[in-house]
């Protein structure tokens, strides 16, 4: 997809952790990074998923979990009815993708993510959304969005390095301004000319015998800019432009090219006006539609945990208690990050009361037990927190049927790895380069677990715990105490004993003097009265 060989001209982009981009935007603006995603590319890629029930939609499910865990606000854009009738020399259909679109939209809604149907091609709509400031960047798998005028494009969301798990962490960032100022000098008009001359998504062959090097030289000579400034109805202007391009390519009179290309012939019908219009005037939403979207979009939709539980049970056959545990294990760390960030939106609710704040924090995180800077987040400070997965997800595990005793396995072959609980791969996973053989999981969602959380998110969601932890690092005695508290929180659930003492006034105990026995004349009944408790 895209322009063949284009990355040799514009480079591989700046490789940055998506979590770093997200947290920098959050620190600058107080809101997460907002990205538009062309969902059609994802729908194509996830077809490579294998194993289990509905591997394609399961691959999408894990991608959405990952997005939830890195504190971004995605807007998924679908192709509309007015997209070009052909692409890569094939007709583009509308009806074949309806069922996958329905399944995809339903899953997005359960995650609380927003979606938008473009009137035409999703890539062009994503670029418009970025230019209009509704999103900060576009996540795509090629740089065609640059041809549609996108300022910042993210591509190749994947793992970095060879160690650890293969969860996607980094993206390649392409900034339109930096690309133009770089050695390629390419801008939107230039990339359009390259696509027309050397081949692009609509006409893959381009001019016969013309490669990207010649097309790039023509672009730097200004032929792309002059072409895009011509009116589509200016036949005479287009003909003059074509003849000038052909003359310079063959004669190199103005020294625009490295050498003469005498055998390179420009076809009489070049450029194809229809294809040119797909690049220069794509079908996108009107200004009023974009304004309405800005005013009505709800970026932080509610994660429908019960709905997701039902979805994975039906789509992936994650049924019974075993399936519920697999569901909790995947969702809990991502939902923890999401909930911690959302607490920053509720600063006016309970944050003036230290006791209430401490209790609210304890519902999410039991303790902080470590810190690090890691390659998965490009050195952004992280904190190691202890939490209870069951408290975060909150489904009724006891209500799930337990059919583990209803069947067994008998045969010569060993039990396959796919039959074990499939854990969501987070950054907290082991980073050893040596392979580890996975055995049967005994993971218990009711017991405390650990996760790495970006420090900025932790300071928003659990400010008191972060403050106490940082104080303990400065005070050796408090550090020993904090480690002991974390150890207790790791071993058992519930609030540690004395966790609330620092927020209340503690009086010294005094000797209690028992009351004298009442006289018989005052005794009205031999029945023992219950003790009386005073309200606090």
Automatic annotation (TrEMBL):
Residues 1-91 form the XPG N-terminal domain. The lineage of its organism: Eukaryota, Fungi, Dikarya, Ascomycota, Pezizomycotina. One of its GO terms (biological process) is DNA repair. Gene3D superfamilies: 5' to 3' exonuclease, C-terminal subdomain, 5'-nuclease. The keyword Phosphoprotein does not apply. CDD domains: H3TH_YEN1, PIN_YEN1. The gene is GEN1. Residues 518-529 have a biased composition (Polar residues). Residues 109-185 form the XPG-I domain. One of its GO terms (molecular function) is crossover junction DNA endonuclease activity. This is Flap endonuclease GEN-like protein. Keywords: Endonuclease, Hydrolase, Nuclease. Residues 426-447, 507-536 are annotated as: Disordered. It comes from the Eukaryota. InterPro entries: 5-3_exonuclease_C_sf (IPR036279), GEN1_C (IPR041177), PIN-like_dom_sf (IPR029060), XPG-I_dom (IPR006086), XPG/Rad2 (IPR006084), XPG_DNA_repair_N (IPR006085), Yen1_H3TH (IPR037316). Pfam families: GEN1_C (PF18380), XPG_I (PF00867), XPG_N (PF00752). Signal peptide: none annotated. SUPFAM superfamilies: 5' to 3' exonuclease, C-terminal subdomain (SSF47807), PIN domain-like (SSF88723).
């Amino acid at each position: 997809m895209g322009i063949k060989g284009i990355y040799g001209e514009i480079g591989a982009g700046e490789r940055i952790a998506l979590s770093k981009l997200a947290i920098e935007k959050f620190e600058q603006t107080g809101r997460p990074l907002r990205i538009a995603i062309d969902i059609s590319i994802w729908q194509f890629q996830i077809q490579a998923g294998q194993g289990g029930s509905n591997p394609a939609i399961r691959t999408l499910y894990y991608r959405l979990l990952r997005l939830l865990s890195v504190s971004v606000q995605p807007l998924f854009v679908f192709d509309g009815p007015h997209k070009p009738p052909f692409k890569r020399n094939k007709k583009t259909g509308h009806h074949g993708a309806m069922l996958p679109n329905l399944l995809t939209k339903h899953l997005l809604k359960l995650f609380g993510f927003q979606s938008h149907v473009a009137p035409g091609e999703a890539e062009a709509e994503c670029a418009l959304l970025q230019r209009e400031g509704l999103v900060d960047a576009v996540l795509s798998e090629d740089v065609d969005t640059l041809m549609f005028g996108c300022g910042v494009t993210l591509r190749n969301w994947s793992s970095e390095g060879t160690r650890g798990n293969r969860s996607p962490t980094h993206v390649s960032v392409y900034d339109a301004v930096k690309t133009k100022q770089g050695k390629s000098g390419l801008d939107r008009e230039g990339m359009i000319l390259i696509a027309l001359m050397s081949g692009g998504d609509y006409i893959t062959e381009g001019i016969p015998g013309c490669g990207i090097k010649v097309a790039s030289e023509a672009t730097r000579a200004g032929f792309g800019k002059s072409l895009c400034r011509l009116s589509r109805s200016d036949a005479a202007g287009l003909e003059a432009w074509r003849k000038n391009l052909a003359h310079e390519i063959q004669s190199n009179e103005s020294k625009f090219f490295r050498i003469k290309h005498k055998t390179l012939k420009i076809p009489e019908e070049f450029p194809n006006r229809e294809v040119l219009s797909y690049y220069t005037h794509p079908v996108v939403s009107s200004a009023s539609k974009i304004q309405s979207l800005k005013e009505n979009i709800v970026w932080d939709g509610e994660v429908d945990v019960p709905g997701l539980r039902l979805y994975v049970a039906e789509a992936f056959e994650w049924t019974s208690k075993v399936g519920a545990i697999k569901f909790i294990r995947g969702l809990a760390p991502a939902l923890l990050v999401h909930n911690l960030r959302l607490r920053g939106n509720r600063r006016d609710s309970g944050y003036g009361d230290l006791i209430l704040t401490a209790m609210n924090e304890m519902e999410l995180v039991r303790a902080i037990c470590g810190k690090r800077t890691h390659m998965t987040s490009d050195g952004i400070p992280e904190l190691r927190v202890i939490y209870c997965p069951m408290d975060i997800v909150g489904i009724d595990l006891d209500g799930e049927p337990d059919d583990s005793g209803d069947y067994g396995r008998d045969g010569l072959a060993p039990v396959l790895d796919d039959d074990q609980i499939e854990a969501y791969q987070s950054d907290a996973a082991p980073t050893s380069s040596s392979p580890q053989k996975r055995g049967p999981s005994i993971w218990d969602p009711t017991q405390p677990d650990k996760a790495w959380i970006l420090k900025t998110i932790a300071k928003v969601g659990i400010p008191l715990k972060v403050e106490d932890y940082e104080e303990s690092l400065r005070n050796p005695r408090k550090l020993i105490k904090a480690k002991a508290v974390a150890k207790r929180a790791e071993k058992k659930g519930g609030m540690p004993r004395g966790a609330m003492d620092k927020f209340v006034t503690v009086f010294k105990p005094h000797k209690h003097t028992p009351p004298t026995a009442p006289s018989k004349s005052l005794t009205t009944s031999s029945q023992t009265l219950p003790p009386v408790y005073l309200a606090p």
